[in-house]
From TrEMBL:
This is PadR family transcriptional regulator. Pfam families: PadR (PF03551). Gene3D superfamilies: Winged helix-like DNA-binding domain superfamily/Winged helix DNA-binding domain. Residues 15-87 form the Transcription regulator PadR N-terminal domain. InterPro entries: Metal_resp_DNA-bind_regulator, Tscrpt_reg_PadR_N, WH-like_DNA-bd_sf, WH_DNA-bd_sf.
Amino acid sequence: MSANKLIKGSLSTIILKLLEDKEEMYGYEITQKVKEITDGEFKITEGALYPSLHKLEADGLLTTKTRKVGNRTRKYYSLTKEGTAEVTSRVSDMEAFITNLNRILNLGTA
């Protein structure tokens, strides 16, 4: 199973964490930052990214601004107050999940 299939359930947490660290980003910038951080191991497609961004926005965790950059209009995403609180919770949940997953994966090696 590829990393891209495994990342699907973690995508909203990844987006929230990136926005916590950078304050605001546009969609393509998010995909490129993930690729850069993971040395190309994780690739987020637009087909996965934008539904997650729209859901996070609908849930009140993100807000958007549009800006004209050259002859293009970009939609920038940033965390709401609720989104900022949610990042801490989701990262904590993810860390606990990873700890438990490691315990399971290392059953025969201890």
